[in-house]
Write a structure and sequence with these properties.
- The protein has helices at 8-19, 33-54, 58-62, 93-97; strands at residues 65-74, 84-86, 104-117, 120-135, 138-155, 158-176.
- 25% of the residues lie in helices and 45% in strands.
- The termini are far apart.
- The protein has a six-stranded mixed sheet with strand order 2-1-6-5-4-3.
């Protein structure tokens, strides 16, 4: 893919043509560079959460949240009341440290929908979280299908999780062959 840098006049001209329905991309939303940068930074935040989980970096994972964060876990997405609730960053440690019971984990983030509103945003991200347990010759894999419902805030040009609801859609447990 080739990226061309255009002068502001050229970009403005093309954006106006698209807004007026001229050209093949009449239904494409025109984003500002700031919106693109914010969406990219939020996606990096989402992926950093998964990376920290898989590398057992609980402190790094905690640093992605505001001090007064709200983090809720719903082990069944149809529940109206969470299984676990945390009201500040420091209390996230035991939740993230709990991943140490697994030999390995691998979180695969899928699609996400992000809605920006100035220095705040909301989003939904889909994830398949793989959890491997090995006890002697016994290998087990637990895969959780998760949807994260997030509220983000930008503080000093850095995006953080303000609120994160982890909702488990389903869990699959299966033995692994060597």
């Amino acid at each position: 893919m080739r990226i061309e840098v255009m002068q502001n006049e050229q970009l403005s001209y093309k954006a106006n043509k698209l807004r007026k329905g001229v050209g093949k991309m009449a239904n494409v939303k025109i984003l500002s560079l700031e919106e693109i940068a914010d969406r990219d930074a939020i996606r990096d935040l989402i992926d950093a959460y998964a990376f920290c989980a898989d590398t057992r970096d609980a402190k790094g994972q905690m640093a992605l949240f505001t001090e007064d964060t709200l983090f809720r876990v719903f082990m069944d997405e149809s529940q109206t009341e969470p299984s676990q609730t945390v009201h500040n960053r420091n209390d996230l440690a035991p939740i993230f440290d709990n991943l140490n019971i697994y030999t390995s984990t691998m979180h695969f983030n899928g699609q996400s929908k992000i809605t920006l509103s100035g220095n705040t945003a909301t989003g939904i991200t889909y994830c398949f979280a793989h959890h491997l347990t090995i006890e002697g010759d016994d290998k087990k894999l637990m895969v959780a299908a998760i949807r994260y419902y997030d509220e983000f805030i930008k503080i000093d040009d850095t995006w953080f999780f303000k609120k994160r609801d982890l909702k488990v859609a389903w869990v699959e447990n299966k033995p692994l062959n060597s």
